[in-house]
Every structure is written in C-alpha cells, then in structure tokens.
C-alpha cells in the first residue's frame, strides 16, 4: 500500500497547512486552466469530434490523480498541490508525444530566465466554446447499466484489501475494516478507466458508516462515526 494512500489517522505527521486561498501563485491558475481544457477536449466526449484541436487523448480527473499518486512517496509529500499537477500533466505530454524533452527543457529555461516572457497565444473560438460548455455540463460517471446492488442498507460488510496500484479510490485506513451499509445510491457508476484493483466497470456505490474506534482506536472521540462512499468492488460480505 502506497504511503500517500494511507495517511488518514497516522500520528506524528507535521502540522497540516491551513492555506485557504485556492491559488497561491499566479502560475497555478494556468495549470488549472490547462487541466480543464484537457478534460473539455478529451476524446471520449462526443462534442469534441467537431472541435478543431490537435489534442486527441483521453484525459480526466482520474488520469491527473493517477499521475500524482504514482509518484515516489517522498516526492509526493515534497511538492505542493499544483506542482504535482504540473508534473503529471508534463509527464503525460511527454509520454504521449505532444512535446519532446528537449522542447520542454528549452521552454522551461526560457521562463526561468525571464518569468515575464510572453506566452504563446492561440485564438480558437470553437475550443473556447467547448471548454465553457464542459464547465456548464460536466462529465457524469453515472451510467444506465442495469446492475443490481449486492448489498442493502443495514448489511455488515468488510472492506477488501486489494493490491496496491498507481491510482486507488479506496482510502488505505479502511482496508480490512468492518462497516455497515448506511445508504445504497441509486443507479450504477463507472470509473474513467480500470485501475487494476477492481473498479472501472459500472457498479453500485454505497455510503458506509464506520465506528472510528474500529479504525483508529482511542485516538478518536467516543461515539464518533465516519461515513465514506465506497465502490462495490471494494466491499465483501463479513463472513468471507
């Protein structure tokens, strides 16, 4: 299990940052904008087929998180939030062949010498319109597959302990813990791509309630419960 998936409840970590600003540095806004544009132009969206863009890849929140969570844990905790975004996006463009390492190094050197150097400007109203439309409509993971839930409200379940992968939607501190199904959400939900630990195909999602003492012992307040939304693939019957 990778450390960055498992920090909930760990003792002796350094104090958390309580920074409330969404963007601390101006460049962070640009990284956020690049990511949003990539999602809006992802090739899995039907609306993109008529948009004149050279970007022809599948890109979602899941891909961004996969890049960050796949980092070496020491690097993961060393870099700031948007620095991890920058690394994930840059790595994707290199691996996908949109830019070479030499081109990236050259542009990086240019802006390190002069942070006020002008940025490339490309005017494309069709791309702008698609990005705005994506921000309005989003990309829902809900699907219309007829999938019957395996569990019902009140069932006692155990959280599985799947193998560690680059990207995981299961909080590490819940592994092997027992909980109770509090709510079965209507419908089925897929994940953007198979992660290798059980999710990807359409499946139910449950709101599961846990006794905090079962997870962290006496480190928590008495009679404290936590609620976590969990994909069905991460749950099993208590007797299994």
From TrEMBL:
Stretch forming the signal peptide: none
Nitrile hydratase beta subunit domain ranges (all copies): 141-236
EC identifiers of the protein: 4.2.1.84
Top-level lineage group: Bacteria
Reaction(s) catalysed by this chain's protein: an aliphatic primary amide = an aliphatic nitrile + H2O
InterPro entries given in the database record: CN_hydtase_beta-like_N (IPR049054), CN_hydtase_beta_C (IPR042262), CN_hydtase_beta_dom_C (IPR024690), Elect_transpt_acc-like_dom_sf (IPR008990), Nitrile_hydratase_bsu (IPR003168)
Domain Nitrile hydratase beta subunit-like N-terminal: start-end pairs: 1-122
GO molecular function terms noted in the UniProt entry: nitrile hydratase activity; transition metal ion binding
Pfam families cross-referenced by the UniProt entry: NHase_beta_C, NHase_beta_N
Keywords assigned: Lyase
Family, similarity comment: Belongs to the nitrile hydratase subunit beta family.
NCBIfam families: nitrile_beta
Annotated function: NHase catalyzes the hydration of various nitrile compounds to the corresponding amides.
Record protein name field: nitrile hydratase
